[in-house]
């Protein structure tokens, strides 16, 4: 019999820590329980169901209009293409760990022939000084809030305001990768509209902290979203109907948006418990959203074996996957939702106390 994987052990644990639910068909079934079976579907991007949802999210983001996309990858490439065409400049700037740079198979260049200019370094967020020191003219700058690949770190809001003002003075478009925008609003103590007014275009996701099955919104001025619809068709994003994505997005938006502050405070609480363990540290030390990274001075394979033992002994599943940093170090991402809120605190304390003991034994 094949050895159980960490993912299998996590899925079998009665007390999973991360996320809001299992990734299975029940996500869709739950969302459809309250749906009107007689409601007409959307057809190629038109119809009441998609148009009302687009208007609802546009209003929430404080933008004149919005377009629903099947994926954020499609939406963001299109946003940068529109700003590039408008400026007549193929150069766009973003962080070296931006999703477009590391997860999209060079799609921005292959599909749109755009030329990325990388800002800052991999260890920190983009700041105003990085933009001021740009040696090349760019059509658009993309900022990700929070910066997921470095633990969900976040710019101070005052710095964000300064960047926005600087870009507008110089005619540089500012695009928000807001895949986790909803999750940082409690830390900023701002509405989505107050954050989004600093940007010319905004992307938000409905399967991250919201927990829908898939889907994204791209929002901005009417002329921008009208052009984005043309590109959506060119990308093959105008499926004959998108209503399963829209219904689940809307349902979980209503369910989970009000809980974002609880998720944020839960992350602060859990990170403190992690940082009390030996040979463990979280990045950032104090989370600014519902997510953070846990770094361990243990090789990936050894940490996986250690975790499977903890899952079996305590019933608590800490993570579904672990990534290698180098031969002696590893890390994993924590993103909290409904599961952590329902978890008995005594169980998480038991698991982390055992983790501390096991790590101390492992590191001698």
UniProtKB/TrEMBL annotation:
Matching SUPFAM superfamilies: PLP-dependent transferases
Residues of the signal peptide: none
GO terms assigned for molecular function: L-allo-threonine aldolase activity; transaminase activity
GO terms classed as biological process: glycine biosynthetic process; L-threonine catabolic process
InterPro entries: ArAA_b-elim_lyase/Thr_aldolase, PyrdxlP-dep_Trfase, PyrdxlP-dep_Trfase_major, PyrdxlP-dep_Trfase_small
Assigned keywords, A-Z: Aminotransferase, Pyridoxal phosphate, Transferase
One Gene Ontology cellular component: cytosol
Domain Aromatic amino acid beta-eliminating lyase/threonine aldolase: 37-296
Domain of life the protein comes from: Bacteria
Family: Belongs to the threonine aldolase family.
Matching PANTHER family: L-THREONINE ALDOLASE, L-THREONINE ALDOLASE-RELATED
Name under which the protein is recorded: Aminotransferase class I/II-fold pyridoxal phosphate-dependent enzyme
């Amino acid at each position: 019999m094949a050895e159980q994987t960490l993912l299998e052990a996590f899925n079998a644990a009665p007390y999973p820590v991360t996320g809001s639910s299992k990734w299975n068909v029940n996500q869709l079934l739950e969302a459809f329980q309250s749906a009107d079976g007689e409601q007409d579907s959307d057809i190629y991007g038109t119809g009441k169901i998609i148009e009302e949802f687009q208007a609802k999210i546009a209003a929430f983001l404080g933008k004149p209009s919005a377009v629903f996309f099947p994926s954020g990858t499609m939406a963001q490439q299109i946003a940068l293409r529109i700003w590039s065409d408008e400026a007549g400049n193929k150069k766009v700037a973003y962080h070296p760990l931006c999703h477009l740079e590391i997860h999209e198979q060079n799609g921005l260049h292959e599909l749109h022939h755009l030329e990325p200019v990388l800002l800052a370094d991999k260890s920190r967020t983009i700041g105003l000084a990085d933009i001021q020191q740009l040696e090349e003219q760019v059509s658009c700058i993309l900022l990700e809030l929070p910066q997921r690949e470095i633990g969900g770190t976040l710019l101070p809001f005052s710095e964000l305001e300064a960047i926005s003002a600087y870009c507008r003075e110089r005619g540089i478009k500012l695009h928000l990768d807001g895949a986790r925008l909803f999750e940082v609003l409690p830390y900023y103590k701002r509405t989505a509209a107050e954050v989004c007014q600093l940007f010319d275009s905004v992307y938000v996701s409905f399967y991250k902290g919201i927990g829908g099955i898939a889907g994204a919104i791209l929002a901005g001025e009417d002329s921008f979203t009208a052009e984005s619809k043309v590109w959506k068709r060119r990308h093959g994003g105008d499926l004959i109907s998108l209503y399963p994505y829209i219904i689940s997005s809307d349902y979980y938006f209503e369910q989970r948006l009000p809980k974002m502050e609880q998720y944020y405070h839960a992350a602060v609480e859990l990170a403190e418990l992690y940082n009390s363990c030996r040979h463990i540290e979280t990045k950032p030390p104090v989370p600014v959203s519902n997510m953070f990274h846990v770094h361990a001075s243990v090789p990936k394979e050894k940490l996986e074996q250690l975790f499977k033992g903890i899952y079996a002994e305590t019933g608590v599943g800490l993570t579904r996957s672990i990534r290698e940093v180098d031969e002696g170090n590893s890390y994993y991402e924590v993103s909290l939702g409904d599961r952590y809120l329902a978890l008995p605190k005594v169980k998480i304390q038991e698991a982390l106390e055992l983790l501390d003991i096991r790590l101390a034994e492992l590191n001698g």
